Amino acid sequence: NAGVTQTPKFQVLKTGQSMTLQCAQDMNHNSMYWYRQDPGMGLRLIYYSASEGTTDKGEVPNGYNVSRLNKREFSLRLESAAPSQTSVYFCASSGLRDEKLFFGSGTQLSVL
Amino acid sequence: TQLLEQSPQFLSIQEGENLTVYCNSSSVFSSLQWYRQEPGEGPVLLVTVVTGGEVKKLKRLTFQFGDARKDSSLHITAAQTGDTGLYLCAGEVTGASGSRLTFGEGTQLTVNP
After folding, report:
1. How many angstroms from the chain centroid is the CA of residue A71?
2. Longest Cα–Cα distance in chain B
3. What is the CA radius of gyration of chain B?
4. CA distance B49 to B27
5. For B59, left (φ over 0), alpha (ψ -120 to 50), or beta?
6. Which of A90, A98, A101, A111 has minimal CB crowding within 10 Å?
7. Does the distance separating the beta carbons of B88 and A101 come in below 8 Å?
8. What whole-number distance in Å separates Cα of residue A7 and Cα of residue A87?
9. Cβ neighbours of A35 in B, within 8 Å
10. How far apart are the first and last CA of chain A?
11. B29-66, pLDDT tens digit by residue?
12. Is the pLDDT of residue A1 over 80?
């Protein structure tokens, strides 16, 4: 009964370092999403994947890349981390695009 | 500029009190979702409203969708400490390029014993 699993839970990077956030869901959902959450800004969509094999930019895609590895997994990559990318990142999935979203527990990322 | 404005941003009340949280926009939504988020966790869906004027009840929580589908409210009766959390509304806008879900910035509710 795992739902949406994100790793890691916490990460500290230096400016310019790269890293990949992993996300997997076991609900056979078609759509997956990456959001970032910042104080006073709500949740902002970075990238989404409406179905396996497709990815699209969201509201704030600059500085990020994604890979929909298969139906279960959707990863988010920061190629050259910047302090402005310090945030809490959430992965989510849904059966259909933008219907009920199931969220992971988040990754707290700090870029120094 | 936020597409969805939530108010108040912060709310601190005593256990047993009633409260209302608002979610407003100038856009028309095809549906609106309310989520609750606890510290260190992701948001969890509480309810989805679809029809203008719709009212949904979930125990002590009452959700209303405005007649014009531009606004929504969440009313909690006799708040409990377990209601503490961040309440987020998310509106779905459907356009030529498909649908888009936009989140408000949230209302941080603290219920004190």
Report:
1. 15
2. 49
3. 14
4. 15
5. left
6. A111
7. no
8. 15
9. 103
10. 36
11. 999 999 999 989 999 999 999 999 999 999 999 999 99
12. no
